[in-house]
Amino acid sequence: MARPPKKKPASAEPATPPANAEAAPANDMTADLAPVVGKNLRRLRTERGLSLERLAQASGVSRAMLGQVELGQSAPTINVLWKIARAVDVPFSALITSSATVGAKILRASQAKRLLSHDGSFSSRALFPFDEPRRVEFYELTLAPKGVESADAHAPGTMENLVVSQGRVEIDVKGVTHALETGDAILFEADAPHVYRNAGPDEASLFLVMTYAEQVG
Q1: N or C: at which end does the chain have fewer Cβ atoms within 10 angstroms?
Q2: Final residue of a domain: which of 96, 127, 150?
Q3: Is the separation of the CB atoms in 83 and 59 below 8 Å?
């Protein structure tokens, strides 16, 4: 989760967005991460005294989708997870955390769990174990040829540091488009809507370091 046109604020989105805008294509998350996300969402929502209706209003995600996520029945898109994390004021990793990890942890590429955009053109792989919320998160991103991913604003003070490992990418931030070639990097404040765009004919790969202003959650 092209500009222009700009993505509408969450409050301006329909009360019940189309299902295909919230649910990702079937992937490993359905079997492995969906139940984890559901359990964490239910706990976080209960701790904050939020009903599904109030959380739907705060996040811009439909009540029906939130209910399905809590039950582990749906694999939400990356953009939907970001909306939920922002609404309950936690880092993205707080929703995909499973259990504590002690000592060295190898994350095998063959066992990677990738979160997808609604059309499958954008994917994100967490390069850290889902052990506990953290202030800094590390991701591998891929964009299909001509793929575009629009991201909502993250919490105030959130920074994104991206490096392009393959391809040509455009990053739109606060109305300015930044063109990046293989090896180029960019650092920007991510507390405003932004867009990742593959400007080339081949798949693009990026690495992202997400830094939150403070530890929350």
Answers
A1: C
A2: 96
A3: yes
Q: Average pLDDT in the 70-76 region?
A: 82
Burial grade of 174 (CB within 10 A; 0-12, 13-18, 19 or more): exposed
Residue 27 · residue 176 · CB < 8 Å: no
Quote the CA–CA distance of 98 and 141 in Å, as a whole number.
21
Q: Which of 51, 52, 46, 47 is nearest to 16 (CA)?
A: 52
CATH number, domain of 189, equals 2.60.120.10
User: The dihedral of CA 146, 202, 114, 27: what is its sign?
Assistant: positive
Q: How many CB atoms lie within 10 A of CB 14?
A: 10
Q: How many angstroms separate the Cα of 136 from the Cα of each of 91, 177, 211?
A: 9, 25, 5
